[in-house]
């Protein structure tokens, strides 16, 4: 990137940024991508983990957004990433009799119709009605009298951080130059035209210029900040809305279904997540640190209070394994409530040479990326092919179904329990063979990670050798989800992770120790912030922890 002018340089390694890099490189363009932190380190690793059309957008009559998202859901489930995106069955509860069942049923029927409108099957079953008796059989944990019946429908879920890293890796496989921990500090201009950026490698301290015919700004909630580097006021503003989620053990709620619950502000999801449930989310304005939005005691109590209204045995703070907070990048007017701001996206050529993409939702990232690159190539010379990402499978996707059918044989071949192989296939797809090769070479890597038995130590090594992890936080918070799934939030896993990463990255003993201390300080600060009563105090406490360990 430093030595050759690129056709396209993408700034921002969230889901839209990596999607834009993949879209551009598969059109035959020379592409670079820089991210100041880690892949999906911001919003794109802290979502509700859902790939969904958005039931609540039907009530807002935003049919175009719902249809677009449902078409994308089908693509992700069946073509692009069947190893990472999985169907999930949800309950929409009813608290009134006939009129509500008819009203919600009509909306669900529309949801089903939209899911077929892309010209291919949706990849999930249609909705169904449940009687009160069927409802309580499916969810024994429900409080008696809480609901009179319900409807079930399907959406999908995804490990958002793994998905983002997989898109970046797929883009690199097609020839894109991608780099994390490289921060853009200035846009280079000739007259009014942007011709590249000045970048700062935060790992080495090196500063250098990257030249590009077109730059794509895909920085999400940081859009206003990066636009300010150009020296011009943007044509729109992005407002950050904080969403908090809780993680609780699966046995705390006896249910075969996820749930969607109405609140006075929005909706609340109860989402199955392996051996856990994800509960969320909140929806409040956020004006503080964008890198580390902090959950408060009030946020946690809000979620628990609303969930407990329908549970026979209430949840308490002691049931909460993990907490995470993310920021939605919403297209903003001057005074709207965040729950009413647009989830649609906008693309603009704000100045010559610079395309800005903002807004949108995780599910429609591929469409957003296509629109951004369409805008960029409109200013390039020559005939450039259109987007082909609707047919580009991510690394690990090709052959996944065959590998899944052979999982028992694969397990026998490597001396592992089939459940271990299923876990690896659903995280790596056919690339699981590369992880298993590490175990064959070093059998000790087949041991579970301390405090996180679902993961093998080989996965920690693979995250570093193949998936671009540079710090312990990258591995425990994003390549795996140990930071939110383990009771100790990864404290016992951190020393083993640092030792294995040190072997790959050549850290000395002092750097290895510093990596562990930095991660433990992050956990301490997060736990402390979650006891604070308001955003300001939670933000102050969370920022006491350093961002990453710096080499000494």
Outline of the structure:
The protein is α+β, with helices and mostly antiparallel strands and 552 residues long. It is built from 19 helices and 20 strands.
The residue ranges in which pLDDT falls below 50 over 5 or more consecutive positions are 334-342
- The share of residues in extended strands comes to 15-25%
Shape: globular
Arithmetic mean pLDDT: 93
How many extended strands?
A: 20
Distance between the termini: 27 Å
DSSP helical segment count: 19
Class from secondary-structure proportions: alpha+beta
Summarize the biggest pleated sheet.
Answer: 10 strands, mixed
| Proportion in helices | 25-40%
How large is the radius of gyration? 23 Å
Characterise this structure.
The chain is of the alpha+beta class and 552 residues long. The protein has 19 helices and 20 strands. The protein has helices spanning 15-25, 55-59, 63-80, 98-116, 132-138, 160-173, 223-230, 297-308, 365-377, 400-405, 407-414, 418-428, 432-441, 457-465, 472-479, 482-485, 494-505, 509-529, 535-542, and strands spanning 6-11, 31-34, 50-51, 85-94, 128-130, 149-158, 177-179, 182-190, 193-201, 207-217, 237-249, 258-262, 267-273, 276-280, 284-285, 322-332, 345-351, 354-359, 448-449, 452-456. The strands form three sheets. Strands 3, 4, 5, 6, 11, 12, 13, 14, 15 and 16 form a ten-stranded mixed sheet that branches. Strands 1, 2, 7, 8, 9, 10, 17 and 18 form an eight-stranded mixed sheet that branches. A two-stranded antiparallel ribbon has the order 19-20. Strand 12 and strand 13 form a beta hairpin. Helix 14 (457-465) packs parallel to helix 17. The longest helix has 21 residues, at 509-529. The protein is globular and about 70 Å long. Mean pLDDT is 93; it is low at 334-342.
């Amino acid at each position: 990137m430093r030595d050759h002018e690129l056709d396209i340089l993408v700034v921002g390694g969230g889901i839209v940024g990596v999607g834009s890099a993949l879209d551009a490189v598969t059109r035959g363009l020379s592409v670079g991508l820089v991210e100041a932190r880690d892949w999906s380190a911001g919003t794109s690793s802290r979502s509700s983990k859902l790939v969904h059309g958005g039931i609540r957008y039907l009530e807002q009559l935003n049919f175009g957004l719902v249809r677009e998202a449902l078409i994308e859901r089908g693509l992700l489930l069946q073509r692009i990433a069947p190893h990472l995106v999985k169907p999930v069955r949800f309950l929409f509860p009813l608290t009134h009799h006939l009129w509500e069942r008819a009203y919600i049923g009509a909306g669900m029927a529309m949801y089903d119709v939209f899911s077929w409108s892309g010209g291919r099957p949706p990849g999930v079953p249609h909705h169904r009605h449940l009687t009160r008796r069927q409802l309580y059989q499916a969810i024994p944990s429900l409080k008696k009298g809480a609901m009179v019946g319900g409807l079930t429908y399907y959406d999908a879920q995804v490990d958002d951080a793994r998905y983002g890293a997989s898109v970046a890796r797929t883009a690199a496989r097609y020839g894109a130059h991608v780099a994390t921990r490289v921060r853009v500090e200035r846009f280079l201009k000739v007259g009014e035209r942007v011709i590249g950026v000045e970048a700062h490698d935060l790992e080495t301290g090196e500063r250098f210029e990257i030249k590009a015919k077109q730059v794509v700004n895909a920085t999400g909630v940081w859009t206003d900040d990066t636009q300010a580097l150009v020296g011009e006021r943007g044509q729109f503003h992005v407002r950050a809305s904080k969403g908090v989620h809780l993680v609780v053990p699966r046995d705390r709620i006896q249910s075969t279904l996820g749930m969607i619950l109405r609140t006075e502000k929005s909706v609340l999801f109860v989402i199955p997540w392996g051996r856990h449930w994800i509960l969320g989310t909140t929806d409040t304005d956020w004006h503080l640190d964008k890198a580390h939005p902090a959950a408060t005691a009030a946020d946690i109590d809000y979620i628990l209070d609303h969930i407990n209204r329908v549970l026979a045995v209430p949840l308490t703070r002691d049931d909460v394994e993990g907490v995470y907070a993310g920021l939605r990048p919403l297209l903003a007017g001057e005074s709207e409530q965040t729950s009413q701001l647009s989830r649609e996206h906008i693309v603009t050529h704000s100045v010559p040479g610079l395309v800005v993409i903002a807004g949108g939702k995780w599910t429609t990232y591929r469409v957003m990326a296509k629109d951004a690159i369409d805008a960029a190539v409109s200013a390039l010379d020559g005939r450039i092919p259109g987007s082909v990402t609707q047919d580009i499978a991510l690394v690990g996707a090709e052959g996944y179904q065959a590998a899944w059918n052979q999982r028992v044989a694969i397990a026998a071949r490597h001396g592992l329990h089939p459940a271990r192989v299923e876990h690896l296939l659903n995280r790596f797809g056919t690339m699981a063979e590369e992880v298993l090769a590490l175990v064959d070479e070093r059998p000790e890597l087949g041991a579970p990670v301390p405090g996180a038995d679902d993961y093998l130590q080989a996965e920690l090594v693979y995250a570093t050798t193949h998936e671009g992890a540079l710090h312990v936080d990258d591995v425990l918070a994003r390549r795996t989800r140990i930071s939110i799934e383990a009771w100790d939030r990864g404290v016992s896993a951190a020393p083993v992770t640092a030792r294995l990463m040190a072997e790959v990255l050549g850290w000395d003993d002092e750097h290895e120790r510093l990596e562990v201390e930095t991660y433990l300080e992050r956990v301490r600060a997060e736990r402390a912030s979650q006891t604070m009563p308001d955003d300001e105090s939670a933000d102050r406490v969370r920022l006491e922890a350093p961002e990453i360990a710096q080499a000494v």
